[in-house]
């Protein structure tokens, strides 16, 4: 798990004030990080086009040009001149060394975008957009310095951006790198140190980036166990029964000792899932909403969902049921909610009366989940998306490991099943959401078929592969 920050300017300032470092030292390390990546992945003599802007992001690019000059075929393009003191100083040094400064941009083995980074504060103008379109059309491997040009401080496109294969980010991970809208522009993210280790550079943060190594799979280490040792997940199966069945299968496959589908009428689930018209008395967690429709009577929901004290996962149709949403007020209960952006907009209107569009949710994902959390801090919210956001008690976790293989009906039902399974096995709400989301994304990564072909059952099967990875 890594810390994530909204901005690194304060962290840079601390390096100067507390550690006696200078901008020059930090910048030398920023460029060194990019140079090391290039030296590791590309042979000497490869051509590199570096496009530098007016400020310190541009200065990083100029330093990189100096560091690689002589070893690589470096071409430095500075379309708008230089403005910051550091950029001026770095340009003087590069010129003294004889770095090749070019007036035009041509394709190269490596394209480095150092036009705007953390300082981008408004939409980029047409000339910059023209440059970016040209850079994006080149075939060379694309590296963004710190943050791709055109990605704003909250991660939104302003209005378009450099399409990086890799973003080499300076000092610490930034929130701007994890908005769904710009995921394709960011590419892979690599963080580099700026002259002190990340432990010394970083301060406190309430936002974390989840990594594959954070997964903690359900433990079956003890030998003296029976099915009752691993909890009993009760999964409501509504009008579209397939959704509940998928969730039930995922719950069972992810370790729940018993899984029961709570049904209204007879269905034909797989033989290894039980079904019942009531929530079993020994259930240890429930999940409701997947394909629910209007299947269950109010009194039934009152008795088995709202009146229950069991840990609960609310998904899908739950967000359209104001009576089910009364569960959110229950502070003594582990509650995990797993809306996708459209469901979040519906939920938001229920809880605030304020109408918001899906686009508004998507452009303000971090802000929206924090606002929700300030109303319901005890509830674990998992906002689905290309980068899932999980929040509870002011702690926010980003799961960036999702893949487009998951963009298919049924993936969300699998997620609900994973989370209820973990709740049933005794995980807290926040741990169940974190671990369920990690298991989902890692299982998808393990699926080795074509990216368009994965079915929910493949995802459930891939859960088997997580142990011992
Ligand atoms: N201590 C430092 O200052 C360090 C800076 N570093 C680099 O410096 C970058 C930040 O540098 P800056 O703060 O100079 O910012 P940028 O270089 O990202 O932007 C330069 C300036 O452009 C102007 N600007 C903003 N939006 C614009 C727009 N749409 N059109 C035209 N002009 C616009 C702003 O005045 C901004 O300060 C980081 O991303 C990182 O790459 C790193 O070298 C680490 C150390």
UniProtKB/TrEMBL annotation:
Task: Please tell me where AMP binds in this chain.
Answer: 412
What does the entry list as the binding residues for (6S)-NADPHX? 56-60, 117-123, 146, 243, 291, 340, 413
Residue ranges occupied by any YjeF C-terminal domain in the UniProt entry: 210-469
- Give the matching CDD domains: YXKO-related
Q: Is the Acyltransferase keyword given for this protein?
A: no
On assembly, the entry states:
Homotetramer.
The protein here is known as Bifunctional NAD(P)H-hydrate repair enzyme
